[in-house]
Amino acid sequence: MSEAIDIRLTINGEAVARRVSARQNLVDFLREELGLTGTRAGCEHGVCGACTVRVDGANVRGCLVFAAQLNGARVDTIEGLSESGEIADLQAAFHARNALQCGFCTAGMLVAAAELLRDTPAPSRDEIRDYLSGNYCRCTGYHAIVDAIETVAQQRGAAKGGT
Ligand code: FES
Ligand code: FES
Description:
The protein has helices at residues 26-33, 78-84, 88-96, 106-119, 125-131, 143-161, and strands spanning 4-11, 14-21, 52-55, 58-61, 74-76. The protein is an alpha+beta fold. The protein has a five-stranded mixed sheet with strand order 2-1-5-3-4, sandwiched between helices. It is globular and about 50 Å long. α3 crosses α6 (143-161). The protein is built from six helices and five strands; from the N terminus they run ββαβββααααα. Bound molecules: FE2/S2 (inorganic) cluster (2 copies).
């Protein structure tokens, strides 16, 4: 039987304390223990990016991190980023540009896009494609996703420039 470990962490700004199995990964912890089902488990091998969440300010693959490793961490999921309004423009652009179909990849795409635009406010289309190369989408062909992110980068740039 797997060892149980007590952890305390902050999830989307809320303090959470739980006893977790040593082998439970973060995406299963979020979905099964906390009901935060916006984060998806796809490949569970660190390849598809569907499980992307923010831990202490940097994106990680939720399938490759054990919940037991996160004592004291701050985790932000798609639910928290949505509620805070941080990605409202990205969500609107994805919707306007039909950058999702089945939606399975979308939470991971949005979390990835948020980090990209935070770190590289005016990325080229190649930089957007390169950054998203670890997030797989089976439906859209990526073009609309790149368009949506490029649009938001331009909108934010224009807002900053006061134009
Ligand atoms: S489920 Fe984690 S990368 Fe695919
Ligand atoms: S919208 Fe279906 S996997 Fe991306």
